[in-house]
Amino acid sequence: MPDAVATNRKARHEYSIEDTLEAGIVLTGTEVKSLRAGHCSLQEGYAIVRDGEAFLKGVHIAPYEQGSYTNVDSVRDRKLLLHAQELRRLSTKLKERGYTLVPLKVYFLRGHAKVELGLAKGKKLYDKRHQLREQDEKRKVEEAMKRFARGERV
C-alpha cells in the first residue's frame, strides 16, 4: 500500500468500519500539487451518492501556495470515480439507517489521487469505552506474556 498523504485516524474510533473501497478523486492541477505537499485534512469529510454519482464533501485541501487564479475553494465537493455496480451497492447500503461513507485516507497510486472510503456505522459512547477497555486488557496480557517469556515474575 502506498504512503498516505492524509489519514483520518479518528474515523476508526468514531465509527465501526464494515467495508472499505478505493475511489479515484477528480481534482484540479493546483489541488494535486497541494496534496503532494501533504496539505489535506479528512476530519470533517464524508461521501454521498447523488444522481448516480459519488461526491466527497467536507474534505479540506489547502490552496496551493504558488497557485494564483487557478486555485479553487478548499472545501468544495469533489467527484469520486467508482464503477456503476459499486455505486449501486453503496447507494442501497447508505439508504439503511445509520450507515455513512467516511474517507479513511488519501494517497497516490501510480500517479493518480485515490481515497480509501469506509462504509461505516456510528458507534455509541459505550461501544467506544468497551473497545478501549479491550485494547487495554490485550496490552496487559501481551506485556505479561513477554515478562513470562523472559523468565521474570508475573
Distance between the termini: 39 Å
For the record, the CATH architecture of the largest domain stands as: Beta Barrel
List the helices and strands in order: EHEHEEEEEHEEH
Q: Which class of the largest domain in CATH terms? A: Mainly Beta
Number of strands: 9
What best-fitting shape do the alpha-carbon axes yield? globular
The stretches of 5 or more residues where confidence is low (pLDDT under 50) are: none
Backbone structural class: alpha+beta
Q: Specify Rg, calculated over alpha carbons.
A: 19 Å
Assess the beta-strand content as a share of residues: 35-45%
User: What do the pLDDT scores average to?
Assistant: 85
Q: How much helical structure, as a percent, in the residues?
A: 25-40%
Q: Could you say what the CATH topology of the largest domain is called?
A: Small Protein B, Chain: A
As laid out across the biggest beta sheet, the strand order is: 1-8-9-2-7-5-4
How many strands, which pairing sense, and closed or not: the largest β-sheet?
Answer: 7 strands, antiparallel
Number of domains: 2
Total DSSP helices? 4
Within CATH, the superfamily of the largest domain carries the name Small protein B
How does this structure look, described?
By secondary structure, this protein is of the alpha+beta class. It folds into two domains: 120 residues, Small Protein B, Chain: A (Beta Barrel); 31 residues. Helix content is 32%, strand content 36%. It has a seven-stranded antiparallel β-sheet with strand order 1-8-9-2-7-5-4. Strands 3-6 form a two-stranded antiparallel ribbon.
